[in-house]
Amino acid sequence: MYPVCLDITGKLCVVVGGGRVARRKVRGLLEAGARVRVISPEATAELVHLARSGRIEWLDRPYRQGDLSGALLVFAATDNQQVQEAVRQEAEATGQLINVADDPGRCSFHVPAVVRRGR
């Protein structure tokens, strides 16, 4: 792996999944200033609130081929292995950076742990 820090301000980042792991990914992306799209037929209360307040875009439906168009970063964060694999394949085919939750060997990038102190 080659370490790098990315300026994702205003860049589209797609998170496929709407559970606890997806929520954590979305928080980090928003803190970095990304434009976030979540694709999932279900979402945590926090993600629903973020969508209703206009902070994220939420496609309230299952992932479909083509949903990753225009994204700089892609996160596959579902509990469905078939969906995870479909997202990974689409991202790799289009040259997008992909993070497959809980499967580091299938990721093209990793998100390190971050320790925050104070503001």
Automatic annotation (TrEMBL):
<keyword id="KW-0627">Porphyrin biosynthesis</keyword>
<keyword id="KW-0520">NAD</keyword>
<dbReference type="Pfam" id="PF13241">
    <property type="entry name" value="NAD_binding_7"/>
</dbReference>
<comment type="pathway">
    <text>Porphyrin-containing compound metabolism; siroheme biosynthesis; sirohydrochlorin from precorrin-2: step 1/1.</text>
</comment>
<dbReference type="GO" id="GO:0004325">
    <property type="term" value="F:ferrochelatase activity"/>
</dbReference>
<dbReference type="InterPro" id="IPR036291">
    <property type="entry name" value="NAD(P)-bd_dom_sf"/>
</dbReference>
<protein>
    <recommendedName>
        <fullName>precorrin-2 dehydrogenase</fullName>
        <ecNumber>1.3.1.76</ecNumber>
    </recommendedName>
</protein>
<dbReference type="InterPro" id="IPR006367">
    <property type="entry name" value="Sirohaem_synthase_N"/>
</dbReference>
<keyword id="KW-0560">Oxidoreductase</keyword>
<dbReference type="GO" id="GO:0019354">
    <property type="term" value="P:siroheme biosynthetic process"/>
</dbReference>
<dbReference type="InterPro" id="IPR028161">
    <property type="entry name" value="Met8-like"/>
</dbReference>
<dbReference type="GO" id="GO:0043115">
    <property type="term" value="F:precorrin-2 dehydrogenase activity"/>
</dbReference>
